[in-house]
């Protein structure tokens, strides 16, 4: 008899939901954008994915939530970090993946995945909006264009301008200054994208390059950044058809595994959760002492602080009676 599980990923700017069947096949998915960490968006995403799957809530055997607002999902049976869920979802969407680069609305993460598809280590930057979706929103506002136009402009740019500010707070002022100097908007956009690629490469360095590499999150839909980051990595990034659903899909698959009693990543995920909470609750984004430039270690902080790296996260995974 067929049964279903659901994953819900409440991020900083979007809510995503995915349903898989008992065979682990994706049945339906939904992506809804309705503001910052929106509970309303969660409800809309869940209603939409159930409707698209031709199911109702009673048909869902288990639901796991993830993302920034994972504890705000009322129908969730358990929560898992986006680290665990993005890795699982990316491995399902691109078998054999060894590196996941997740860039969302407010933070960015790199996740090294081993040959078994488990998280080996990860690095997180969420104390600065440099290189995130918010950063590109600032660029759009400064150039007075929409995101699609910013991407097109970046692909047309030929000159590599010096963009010293990687801070979302200062970047708009710098872009306006470059425009006042007569710089071509296409060159500005291209240069900002190159700088973001360099910033992301620094985050990758914290966990180590590995291929195939997959990019997840909303920013993965930015064709220009994918191109510049691929060039920086020296190898083409794998582009998923729908990179935004990786976290929700991973959560749905973990829910399926738990419902079958096949695998528990709970111990490992608790460790990751402690690390995320410690870093995120260590204070709001504090720009004190930051000069807004790209530090020598490719950190967005002028003081040279390195991005925290969490090692061997899934080595504490506890197999169920049926193995993985």
UniProtKB/TrEMBL annotation:
Pfam annotation, one family: BcrAD_BadFG
Stored InterPro entries: ATPase_BadF, ATPase_NBD, CoA_E_activase_dom, Dehydratase_Activator_Redct
Lineage: superkingdom: Bacteria
Keyword vocabulary terms for this entry: Iron, Iron-sulfur, Metal-binding
ATPase BadF/BadG/BcrA/BcrD type domain location: 7-255
Cofactor: [4Fe-4S] cluster
Name by which UniProt lists this protein: Acyl-CoA dehydratase activase
């Amino acid at each position: 008899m067929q049964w279903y599980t659901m994953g819900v990923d409440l991020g900083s700017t979007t809510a995503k939901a995915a349903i898989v069947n008992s065979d682990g096949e994706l049945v339906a998915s939904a992506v809804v954008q309705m503001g910052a960490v929106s509970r309303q968006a969660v409800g809309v995403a869940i209603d939409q994915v159930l409707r698209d799957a031709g199911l109702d809530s009673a048909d869902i055997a288990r639901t796991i939530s993830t993302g920034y607002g994972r504890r705000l999902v009322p129908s969730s049976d358990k929560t898992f970090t986006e680290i665990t869920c993005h890795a699982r979802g990316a491995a399902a969407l691109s078998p054999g993946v060894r590196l996941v680069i997740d860039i969302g609305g407010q933070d960015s993460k790199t996740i090294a995945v081993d040959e078994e598809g488990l998280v080996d280590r990860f690095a997180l930057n969420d104390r600065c909006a440099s290189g995130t979706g918010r950063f590109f929103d600032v660029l759009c506002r400064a150039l007075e264009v929409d995101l699609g136009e910013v991407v097109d402009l970046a692909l047309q740019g030929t000159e590599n301008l010096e963009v010293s500010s990687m801070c979302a707070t200062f970047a708009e002022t710098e872009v306006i200054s470059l425009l006042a100097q007569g710089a071509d908007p296409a060159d500005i956009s291209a240069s900002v994208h190159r700088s973001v690629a360099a910033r992301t490469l620094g985050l990758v360095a914290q966990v180590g390059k590995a291929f195939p590499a997959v990019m997840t999150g909303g920013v993965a839909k930015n064709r220009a950044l994918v191109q510049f980051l691929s060039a920086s990595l020296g190898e083409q990034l794998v582009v998923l058809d729908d990179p935004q659903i990786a976290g929700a899909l991973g959560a749905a698959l973990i829910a399926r595994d738990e419902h079958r009693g096949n695998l528990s990543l709970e111990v490992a995920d608790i460790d990751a959760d402690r690390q995320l909470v410690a870093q995120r609750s260590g204070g709001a984004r504090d720009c004190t002492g930051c000069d807004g430039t790209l530090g020598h270690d490719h950190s967005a902080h002028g003081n040279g602080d390195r991005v925290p790296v969490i090692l061997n996260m899934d080595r504490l995974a506890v197999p169920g009676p049926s193995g993985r």
